Amino acid sequence: MSISLFRLRRGIWLRLALVVGLLGYAVAANADERLAGIACRSVHLGYPAAEGVAFYNEMTVDESADGTYFMACGFQMGYFGIQQLGNGKRLAIFSVWDPGNQNDAKSVADEQRVKLIHKDDDVRVGRFGNEGTGGQSFYDFDWKNGETYGFFVTAKIDPESDGKRTEYAGHIYLPEKKAWKHLVTFSTLAGGKTLRGYYSFVEDFKRDRKSTKFARRAHFGNGWVKTADGQWVALTRARFTADGNPATNIDAGAEGERFFLATGGETKNVGTKLRDSIDRVPTGLVIPDSSTKLNESKDERGR
How many domains does the chain have? Predict the structure, then answer.
């Protein structure tokens, strides 16, 4: 990924953090008009909620194209979702950042790096750079358009680090197997913080001009945050934002109990105006039993 893409993603979190009241100062938009006609505009939903220890969200991809990232669970130190690569291959990806704004992965001292705590046997992990630095994991699976997947992130401060490190675990629900899969747990220096700055996005990372001709669309719903005192809070409001690409073929809104995001192709902005808030109907929301069990489970070190 390019440095500009890193700035875009970190900029997304900063802007959304401002929306939910986590920052007390204005953050300049990372306008990048050079993307006009090259890439679909990146679109995002920011969910206002208190700092938490668990973040659950469901996502259904309606329309996809090569070079697309559908991100379900974003937070201040990472993000979690599914991708369709430029060659059509599909996978899940969960990433956590090192502290700082560096882009050279080799420049980060060992004690400052993301550490691997748990890895499923089917998951590939490694270090990344050029979009910040950190730990990244990939799970190859042929996710389907129209299928709803659950994404669950937990956060736990590591007591052995004097409260300096937080462990972030990523789990995905695979409906065809009717089972959760714990992909990975990463530990990073988060300054005693757990989860905050919740968001989702749809992004075109192919950026070859041709990619702008294809629509990307996904639904997001049944989102929840578990606060430190054990309360589950439903995410029934979101703010619609986008990057600095001037393209106008974007849209967002609520359809029944779920939000949606759309960008590219023949998309028209007939739902929600940019920077407006969206409310969805919370009727019938149910906290998945699996989420509670996952949050209370121990990692491989027996904690």
Answer: 1
